[in-house]
Amino acid sequence: MVATAFVLAPTAPAQAGKYLYLETAVNLDGRSEWFWTDRDIVYHQWASRAGIQPDSVVRPLSGQKISSGVGATHNNDGRLEIFGRGQDGQLWHNWQIWPGGDWYGWVPLSGQIQSHSYLGAWYDAGTSTIRVQVVGTDGYLHILRQLHPGCCWNTVWE
């Protein structure tokens, strides 16, 4: 189950490039985890147990500057996976190495995405794969699909 809240909140003129987007996903054991961007860095915070708001220390998921909101969902085995637009305009993703565990690191997928565009990610229970929807630089919605559960992404956008 993934709940999404998109908040586009420009700050004072001195920090006009700052935007916050909040994405919530639920770990395999029922704990919620929050993801957001602030000045091109993705941060996350998680709950220590199911049924409560995230209460951990806020930590950055560094290694790639993300210039969009973050999409989050779970894989077929319960690992969370997040997506964002890198500074190069491509779609990048990062995933938990094991459910509720450490993060692998940012890896590019492909495509060119509009700056500060909509970015949605969801788990398709029918195919046990993830789909990501973005607005391309052509202004149209595009979908990228995982080819097999837990691995391998299509290189062609729909």
Structural commentary:
It is a single chain. The chain has 158 residues and is an all-beta fold. It has a domain at 2-111. Helices cover 0% and strands 42% of the residues. It has no helices and 13 strands. The protein has strands at residues 2-5, 22-26, 32-38, 41-46, 59-60, 71-74, 80-85, 91-95, 107-110, 119-124, 129-135, 141-148, 151-153. It has a 5-stranded antiparallel β-sheet, with no helix packed on it. Strand 10 (119-124) and strand 11 form a beta hairpin. The radius of gyration is 15 Å and the shape is globular.
Summarize, please.
This protein is mainly β. 0% of the residues lie in helices and 42% in strands.
Question: What would the average pLDDT be, to the nearest integer?
Answer: 85
What amount of the residues lies in strands?
35-45%
SSE succession: EEEEEEEEEEEEE
* Major sheet characteristics: 5 strands, antiparallel
Question: What is the rounded distance between the termini?
Answer: 24 Å
- Number of continuous helical runs: 0
* Approximate helicity band: under 10%
The assigned structural class equals mainly beta
**CA-based gyration radius:** 15 Å
Which word captures the global form? globular
Low-pLDDT runs of 5+ residues are 1-17
Q: What is the spatial order of strands in the main beta sheet?
A: 1-2-3-4-5
Number of strands: 13
